[in-house]
Amino acid sequence: MCALLSGRLSARNRKLRAGAQGLSLAAERLDEEAPVVAFAVQHWLEDAPDGPIEYGSKLAERAVTVLVDAWSAAIVHELARGPMTSAELAEAIEDLDPSGAQSRLTGLHGVALAEAVGQGDEALYAATDWLRLAIAPLIAAARLERGTGMAGAAPVDAFDVEAGFRMALEVIEMPEELSGACCLRLNLDEGVRDRCGGVTARFDCGELISCEATIEAPSDAWAMGDLDDWLDTVLDPNSRAVRTGGDRWLTDALVAALSRDLFGLKATPRGLWRGGWGGFSSDDF
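^ that's the sequence the OP posted. Answer follows.
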């Protein structure tokens, strides 16, 4: 049995969470060092709610900086679970006081990564779809960190996995004819406290109706692999590194949707990427 992360999370567990350091390279416009991360950021910026944001602009740098800070503080992770007030966020994250929580929530709201209902301390903050789509550049950045052995990069943990799946599942589009529950499991590296993470997602006529942070709930299908398997599969849909079973129509559609809707990538018969990466391949990670 795999124990999943639960309880309060310390904001001081580490300075940066997985993907944050690699994503910061894009904020600094180090395109030559992180080309695929830069393209992932550019793809994400084009989907900004108020219209495309120019890569390298002050607004783009601000959005990425706010995202990196909120991801590293685990605020994004908590908002992926559902709307919260600043007080609830401070209660959920150890060592994060209400003023710090409010400051970060205000920052997210200021760049359209969160929306607020109400005012003051009672305001309820929820993730926007643009925040959920931000999992794409974070995934690309985590792949960069692993591929280059970036010094100081934090390892992916079960809380990152849960947040990533929750964010992605809310924004992908599934065929209307598909219904059922699918367990998505990711086996983590040795040395990580929780050696596996994942969720069980339930769909009804293509709509996501629930997402539980468990890999032990009854399901009709499953997809599993280690961290590199999942990173390779979502970033290169032809790799097919993730193993699947059960209702293959459900798992195949779900895995394909992750690449297509997060990165604009599709598998092709020749094994080439079709999408917006300007000729880059998995060798560029």
